[in-house]
Amino acid sequence: MIVSAKKRIIDLLIKSGGEGVLQSEIPRKLDLSKSTVSEILSDLENEGIVVREKAAGKSYRVWFFKFAPKPIEGVIRIGVLRASEYPHALMAAEKLEDVKVCVEVFDDAQELTKTLSMSQLDVGFSPFITQTLFALLLKSIKIHCIAAYNGSGVALKKSLEKSRAFATSELSAMESNLKLFLEQSGFNLTELTFKYFSSPEDMIEKFAGCEVDALAIWEPYFTALRSKYKCIEFREVIGDFPCCSLASNIQFYKRNKSILKDYLDGLKSSVEEIEERKDYAAELVAKKMGFDEKLVMKSFDSYIFSASLSRDDFEYLEKYGLKLTKESMKNILGDKI
User: Fold this and answer.
1) Following DSSP, what letter does each residue of 296-307 receive, concatenated?
2) Is the pLDDT confidence value at 336 over 70?
3) Cα 213 from Cα 158, distance rounded (Å)
4) Contact, 78 vs 103, CB < 8 A?
5) Mean pLDDT across the chain, nearest whole number?
6) DSSP string, 104-136
7) What whole-number distance in Å separates Cα of residue 8 and Cα of residue 26?
8) Which residues pair with 261 in a beta bridge?
9) For 190-199, what is each residue's pLDDT tens digit?
Protein backbone atom coordinates (compact mmCIF):
# COMPACT_ATOMS: atom_id res chain seq x y z
CA MET A 1 0.00 0.00 0.00
CA ILE A 2 2.80 2.45 0.90
CA VAL A 3 4.57 1.93 -2.45
CA SER A 4 1.32 2.44 -4.35
CA ALA A 5 0.47 5.51 -2.29
CA LYS A 6 3.93 6.98 -2.89
CA LYS A 7 3.53 6.65 -6.65
CA ARG A 8 0.05 8.20 -6.53
CA ILE A 9 1.38 11.17 -4.56
CA ILE A 10 4.28 11.68 -6.99
CA ASP A 11 1.90 11.44 -9.97
CA LEU A 12 -0.40 14.02 -8.40
CA LEU A 13 2.49 16.43 -7.81
CA ILE A 14 3.82 15.98 -11.34
CA LYS A 15 0.36 16.68 -12.73
CA SER A 16 0.04 19.83 -10.61
CA GLY A 17 3.26 21.24 -12.14
CA GLY A 18 4.35 24.67 -10.95
CA GLU A 19 1.20 25.23 -8.89
CA GLY A 20 1.99 22.44 -6.47
CA VAL A 21 -0.58 21.05 -4.02
CA LEU A 22 -1.48 21.95 -0.47
CA GLN A 23 -0.46 19.04 1.77
CA SER A 24 -3.85 19.22 3.48
CA GLU A 25 -5.58 18.50 0.14
CA ILE A 26 -3.62 15.35 -0.71
CA PRO A 27 -5.46 12.97 1.69
CA ARG A 28 -8.82 14.02 0.23
CA LYS A 29 -7.67 13.94 -3.39
CA LEU A 30 -6.12 10.46 -3.08
CA ASP A 31 -8.31 8.97 -0.33
CA LEU A 32 -5.35 8.45 1.99
CA SER A 33 -4.95 9.06 5.70
CA LYS A 34 -3.19 12.21 6.89
CA SER A 35 -0.57 10.12 8.69
CA THR A 36 0.23 8.09 5.56
CA VAL A 37 0.60 11.24 3.46
CA SER A 38 2.78 12.91 6.10
CA GLU A 39 5.06 9.87 6.39
CA ILE A 40 5.48 9.49 2.62
CA LEU A 41 6.13 13.19 2.07
CA SER A 42 8.82 13.17 4.77
CA ASP A 43 10.55 10.27 3.02
CA LEU A 44 10.24 11.92 -0.40
CA GLU A 45 11.55 15.19 0.98
CA ASN A 46 14.60 13.45 2.45
CA GLU A 47 15.21 11.83 -0.93
CA GLY A 48 15.02 15.22 -2.67
CA ILE A 49 12.01 14.18 -4.73
CA VAL A 50 9.57 16.71 -3.29
CA VAL A 51 9.88 20.20 -1.86
CA ARG A 52 7.64 21.62 0.88
CA GLU A 53 7.19 25.23 1.83
CA LYS A 54 4.91 26.98 4.35
CA ALA A 55 1.90 28.51 2.62
CA ALA A 56 -0.18 30.07 5.44
CA GLY A 57 -0.47 29.25 9.12
CA LYS A 58 0.27 25.56 9.49
CA SER A 59 -0.38 24.76 5.82
CA TYR A 60 2.37 23.54 3.48
CA ARG A 61 2.47 23.58 -0.30
CA VAL A 62 4.23 20.64 -1.94
CA TRP A 63 5.92 20.38 -5.35
CA PHE A 64 7.65 17.66 -7.34
CA PHE A 65 11.28 18.80 -7.29
CA LYS A 66 11.35 19.70 -11.01
CA PHE A 67 8.67 22.34 -10.47
CA ALA A 68 9.65 23.76 -7.09
CA PRO A 69 9.96 27.59 -7.20
CA LYS A 70 13.30 27.63 -5.42
CA PRO A 71 16.70 25.92 -5.53
CA ILE A 72 17.02 22.47 -3.99
CA GLU A 73 20.04 21.33 -2.03
CA GLY A 74 22.29 19.06 -4.10
CA VAL A 75 20.20 19.46 -7.27
CA ILE A 76 20.69 21.38 -10.52
CA ARG A 77 17.78 21.75 -12.95
CA ILE A 78 19.01 22.67 -16.44
CA GLY A 79 16.77 23.97 -19.21
CA VAL A 80 17.72 23.71 -22.90
CA LEU A 81 15.86 24.38 -26.12
CA ARG A 82 15.15 21.60 -28.61
CA ALA A 83 18.15 22.35 -30.80
CA SER A 84 21.59 20.94 -31.63
CA GLU A 85 23.31 23.88 -29.94
CA TYR A 86 23.99 22.24 -26.60
CA PRO A 87 26.45 19.32 -26.80
CA HIS A 88 28.71 21.04 -24.24
CA ALA A 89 25.73 21.71 -21.95
CA LEU A 90 24.94 17.97 -21.85
CA MET A 91 28.60 16.94 -21.57
CA ALA A 92 29.12 19.36 -18.67
CA ALA A 93 26.08 17.93 -16.88
CA GLU A 94 27.67 14.48 -17.04
CA LYS A 95 30.80 15.79 -15.30
CA LEU A 96 28.99 16.94 -12.17
CA GLU A 97 29.65 14.73 -9.16
CA ASP A 98 27.49 14.27 -6.07
CA VAL A 99 24.76 16.39 -7.66
CA LYS A 100 21.33 15.31 -8.87
CA VAL A 101 21.00 16.59 -12.46
CA CYS A 102 17.69 17.15 -14.24
CA VAL A 103 17.77 18.36 -17.87
CA GLU A 104 14.46 19.61 -19.30
CA VAL A 105 13.91 20.29 -23.00
CA PHE A 106 11.72 23.20 -24.14
CA ASP A 107 10.33 24.12 -27.57
CA ASP A 108 9.63 27.75 -26.67
CA ALA A 109 12.44 30.16 -25.72
CA GLN A 110 10.12 32.53 -23.88
CA GLU A 111 8.66 29.69 -21.81
CA LEU A 112 12.12 28.45 -20.86
CA THR A 113 13.32 31.91 -19.84
CA LYS A 114 10.10 32.58 -17.93
CA THR A 115 10.45 29.27 -16.07
CA LEU A 116 14.06 30.17 -15.23
CA SER A 117 13.07 33.60 -13.95
CA MET A 118 10.42 32.00 -11.71
CA SER A 119 13.06 29.77 -10.06
CA GLN A 120 11.58 26.57 -11.48
CA LEU A 121 14.87 26.08 -13.34
CA ASP A 122 18.30 26.70 -11.85
CA VAL A 123 20.19 27.39 -15.07
CA GLY A 124 18.92 27.74 -18.60
CA PHE A 125 20.09 28.11 -22.19
CA SER A 126 17.93 30.41 -24.32
CA PRO A 127 18.45 33.35 -26.73
CA PHE A 128 20.86 36.02 -25.49
CA ILE A 129 18.43 38.79 -26.46
CA THR A 130 15.59 37.08 -24.55
CA GLN A 131 17.67 36.54 -21.42
CA THR A 132 18.94 40.12 -21.53
CA LEU A 133 15.40 41.53 -21.67
CA PHE A 134 14.21 39.27 -18.82
CA ALA A 135 17.28 40.18 -16.76
CA LEU A 136 16.67 43.90 -17.27
CA LEU A 137 12.94 43.80 -16.57
CA LEU A 138 12.63 41.20 -13.81
CA LYS A 139 16.14 41.25 -12.33
CA SER A 140 15.73 37.57 -11.46
CA ILE A 141 18.47 36.00 -13.58
CA LYS A 142 22.22 36.46 -14.10
CA ILE A 143 23.87 35.85 -17.48
CA HIS A 144 27.20 33.98 -17.45
CA CYS A 145 28.29 33.19 -21.00
CA ILE A 146 27.37 32.79 -24.64
CA ALA A 147 26.75 29.13 -25.47
CA ALA A 148 27.20 29.39 -29.23
CA TYR A 149 27.37 31.73 -32.19
CA ASN A 150 25.32 31.38 -35.40
CA GLY A 151 23.36 28.17 -36.12
CA SER A 152 20.27 29.52 -37.91
CA GLY A 153 18.99 31.06 -41.11
CA VAL A 154 16.11 31.51 -43.56
CA ALA A 155 14.46 28.77 -45.64
CA LEU A 156 12.63 30.01 -48.76
CA LYS A 157 9.82 28.66 -50.94
CA LYS A 158 10.40 31.35 -53.57
CA SER A 159 13.16 33.88 -54.14
CA LEU A 160 13.99 36.14 -51.20
CA GLU A 161 13.01 39.20 -53.27
CA LYS A 162 9.49 37.84 -53.82
CA SER A 163 8.94 36.66 -50.23
CA ARG A 164 6.49 38.70 -48.17
CA ALA A 165 5.27 36.48 -45.30
CA PHE A 166 7.86 35.22 -42.80
CA ALA A 167 7.48 32.76 -39.93
CA THR A 168 9.63 33.02 -36.82
CA SER A 169 9.60 32.73 -33.03
CA GLU A 170 8.76 35.81 -30.99
CA LEU A 171 11.17 37.80 -28.80
CA SER A 172 14.06 35.59 -29.86
CA ALA A 173 17.34 35.52 -31.74
CA MET A 174 15.34 34.23 -34.72
CA GLU A 175 13.08 37.28 -34.85
CA SER A 176 15.91 39.76 -34.19
CA ASN A 177 18.24 38.21 -36.77
CA LEU A 178 15.49 37.79 -39.35
CA LYS A 179 14.59 41.49 -39.19
CA LEU A 180 18.24 42.54 -39.25
CA PHE A 181 18.85 40.17 -42.17
CA LEU A 182 15.89 41.58 -44.11
CA GLU A 183 16.85 45.21 -43.45
CA GLN A 184 20.41 44.57 -44.63
CA SER A 185 18.96 42.81 -47.69
CA GLY A 186 17.11 46.02 -48.62
CA PHE A 187 13.58 45.26 -47.35
CA ASN A 188 11.18 47.71 -45.71
CA LEU A 189 9.86 45.75 -42.69
CA THR A 190 6.56 47.63 -42.68
CA GLU A 191 5.71 46.03 -46.04
CA LEU A 192 6.20 42.47 -44.72
CA THR A 193 4.09 40.09 -42.64
CA PHE A 194 5.53 38.23 -39.66
CA LYS A 195 3.81 35.21 -38.13
CA TYR A 196 4.96 33.87 -34.77
CA PHE A 197 5.15 30.26 -33.64
CA SER A 198 6.23 28.69 -30.34
CA SER A 199 6.96 25.27 -31.88
CA PRO A 200 9.43 24.64 -34.75
CA GLU A 201 7.31 21.72 -35.95
CA ASP A 202 4.23 23.97 -36.26
CA MET A 203 6.29 26.56 -38.11
CA ILE A 204 7.59 23.99 -40.61
CA GLU A 205 4.08 22.59 -41.13
CA LYS A 206 2.69 26.03 -42.01
CA PHE A 207 5.68 26.68 -44.26
CA ALA A 208 5.18 23.38 -46.10
CA GLY A 209 1.49 24.20 -46.42
CA CYS A 210 2.31 27.50 -48.15
CA GLU A 211 0.89 29.72 -45.38
CA VAL A 212 4.19 31.61 -45.32
CA ASP A 213 6.84 32.25 -47.98
CA ALA A 214 9.83 31.75 -45.70
CA LEU A 215 10.82 30.90 -42.17
CA ALA A 216 13.65 31.72 -39.79
CA ILE A 217 14.71 28.59 -37.96
CA TRP A 218 17.59 27.07 -36.04
CA GLU A 219 19.63 23.89 -36.25
CA PRO A 220 19.22 21.05 -36.93
CA TYR A 221 15.87 21.94 -38.54
CA PHE A 222 17.71 24.38 -40.82
CA THR A 223 20.08 21.69 -42.11
CA ALA A 224 17.15 19.30 -42.63
CA LEU A 225 15.38 21.90 -44.81
CA ARG A 226 18.45 22.45 -47.01
CA SER A 227 17.75 19.31 -49.04
CA LYS A 228 14.39 20.64 -50.21
CA TYR A 229 14.46 24.43 -50.09
CA LYS A 230 16.78 27.33 -50.83
CA CYS A 231 18.39 28.27 -47.50
CA ILE A 232 20.52 31.24 -46.48
CA GLU A 233 22.45 31.30 -43.21
CA PHE A 234 22.06 34.55 -41.29
CA ARG A 235 25.83 34.89 -40.89
CA GLU A 236 26.21 35.18 -44.69
CA VAL A 237 24.54 38.60 -44.45
CA ILE A 238 24.86 39.85 -40.86
CA GLY A 239 28.12 38.15 -39.84
CA ASP A 240 28.78 36.03 -36.74
CA PHE A 241 26.24 36.66 -33.98
CA PRO A 242 25.71 35.45 -30.40
CA CYS A 243 22.78 33.06 -30.28
CA CYS A 244 21.89 31.40 -26.96
CA SER A 245 23.45 32.25 -23.62
CA LEU A 246 23.58 30.54 -20.22
CA ALA A 247 21.90 32.24 -17.28
CA SER A 248 21.19 31.18 -13.72
CA ASN A 249 18.24 32.02 -11.55
CA ILE A 250 19.37 34.55 -8.97
CA GLN A 251 18.32 32.36 -6.02
CA PHE A 252 20.42 29.47 -7.30
CA TYR A 253 23.23 31.90 -8.12
CA LYS A 254 23.34 33.07 -4.51
CA ARG A 255 22.81 29.73 -2.74
CA ASN A 256 24.63 27.18 -4.89
CA LYS A 257 27.71 28.93 -6.24
CA SER A 258 29.86 25.82 -5.85
CA ILE A 259 27.54 23.75 -8.07
CA LEU A 260 27.31 26.61 -10.57
CA LYS A 261 31.10 26.98 -10.65
CA ASP A 262 31.55 23.26 -11.30
CA TYR A 263 29.00 23.38 -14.09
CA LEU A 264 30.59 26.44 -15.73
CA ASP A 265 34.03 24.83 -15.49
CA GLY A 266 32.62 21.69 -17.08
CA LEU A 267 31.04 23.76 -19.84
CA LYS A 268 34.37 25.40 -20.69
CA SER A 269 36.27 22.13 -20.80
CA SER A 270 33.50 20.51 -22.86
CA VAL A 271 33.75 23.21 -25.56
CA GLU A 272 37.37 22.17 -26.05
CA GLU A 273 36.34 18.49 -26.28
CA ILE A 274 33.52 18.76 -28.82
CA GLU A 275 35.71 18.46 -31.93
CA GLU A 276 37.70 15.47 -30.66
CA ARG A 277 34.55 13.78 -29.28
CA LYS A 278 32.20 14.86 -32.05
CA ASP A 279 30.55 11.44 -32.45
CA TYR A 280 29.76 11.23 -28.75
CA ALA A 281 28.58 14.87 -28.63
CA ALA A 282 26.19 14.24 -31.53
CA GLU A 283 24.95 11.04 -29.88
CA LEU A 284 24.17 12.89 -26.64
CA VAL A 285 22.23 15.64 -28.41
CA ALA A 286 20.36 13.27 -30.72
CA LYS A 287 19.24 11.07 -27.84
CA LYS A 288 18.12 13.94 -25.61
CA MET A 289 16.38 15.97 -28.32
CA GLY A 290 14.98 13.15 -30.45
CA PHE A 291 16.95 14.08 -33.59
CA ASP A 292 18.76 11.96 -36.15
CA GLU A 293 22.40 11.61 -35.10
CA LYS A 294 23.83 12.20 -38.59
CA LEU A 295 21.72 15.34 -38.94
CA VAL A 296 23.02 16.64 -35.61
CA MET A 297 26.61 15.91 -36.61
CA LYS A 298 26.19 17.85 -39.85
CA SER A 299 24.53 20.79 -38.10
CA PHE A 300 27.51 21.25 -35.75
CA ASP A 301 29.34 22.90 -38.68
CA SER A 302 26.96 25.87 -38.42
CA TYR A 303 28.06 26.76 -34.89
CA ILE A 304 30.96 28.31 -33.07
CA PHE A 305 30.56 26.78 -29.61
CA SER A 306 31.44 28.98 -26.65
CA ALA A 307 31.53 29.29 -22.86
CA SER A 308 32.61 32.92 -22.53
CA LEU A 309 31.11 36.40 -22.67
CA SER A 310 32.59 39.71 -23.79
CA ARG A 311 31.59 43.34 -24.15
CA ASP A 312 31.39 42.76 -27.90
CA ASP A 313 28.48 40.38 -27.32
CA PHE A 314 26.48 43.09 -25.56
CA GLU A 315 27.45 45.62 -28.20
CA TYR A 316 26.03 43.27 -30.84
CA LEU A 317 22.60 43.79 -29.22
CA GLU A 318 22.76 47.40 -30.43
CA LYS A 319 22.14 46.03 -33.93
CA TYR A 320 18.75 44.90 -32.60
CA GLY A 321 18.10 48.36 -31.16
CA LEU A 322 19.00 47.42 -27.58
CA LYS A 323 21.73 49.67 -26.18
CA LEU A 324 22.87 48.90 -22.63
CA THR A 325 24.66 51.16 -20.19
CA LYS A 326 27.69 49.93 -18.24
CA GLU A 327 25.50 49.85 -15.13
CA SER A 328 22.88 47.71 -16.87
CA MET A 329 25.51 45.23 -18.04
CA LYS A 330 27.00 45.08 -14.56
CA ASN A 331 23.59 44.35 -13.02
CA ILE A 332 22.71 41.45 -15.30
CA LEU A 333 26.14 39.81 -15.42
CA GLY A 334 27.06 37.09 -12.96
CA ASP A 335 30.25 37.67 -11.00
CA LYS A 336 33.24 35.52 -11.84
CA ILE A 337 32.65 32.42 -9.76
Assistant:
1) HHHHGGGEEEEE
2) no
3) 7
4) yes
5) 94
6) EEES-HHHHHHHHHTTS-SEEEEEHHHHHHHHH
7) 10
8) none
9) 999 999 999 9
∠ CA 59-119-331, rounded to 5°: 130
Q: Which residues contact 240 (CB under 8 A, 6 or more apart)?
A: 149, 150, 304
Closest C-alpha among 18, 19, 129, 8 to residue 77 = 18
Q: List the Cα angle 1/44/60 in 5-degree steps.
A: 105
Angstrom distances, CA of residue 147 to CA of 38, 39, 87, 250, 313: 43, 43, 10, 19, 12
Q: What are the tens digits of pLDDT across the range 137-183?
A: 999 999 999 999 999 999 999 999 999 999 999 989 999 999 999 99
On whether the CB atoms of residues 53 and 70 are closer than 8 A, the answer is yes
pLDDT greater at residue 49 or residue 271: 271
Query: 66-92: per-residue pLDDT in tens?
Result: 899 999 988 999 999 999 999 999 999
Structural domains in the chain, sorted by start: 2-67 (1.10.10.10), 75-149+242-332 (3.40.190.10), 152-238 (3.40.190.10)
Q: Is the pLDDT of residue 2 over 60?
A: no
Q: Is the pTM of this model over 0.85?
A: yes
DSSP 209-240: TTSSSEEEEETTHHHHHTTTSEEEETHHHH-S
Residue 318 Ramachandran class (φ > 0 left, ψ -120 to 50 alpha, else beta) = alpha
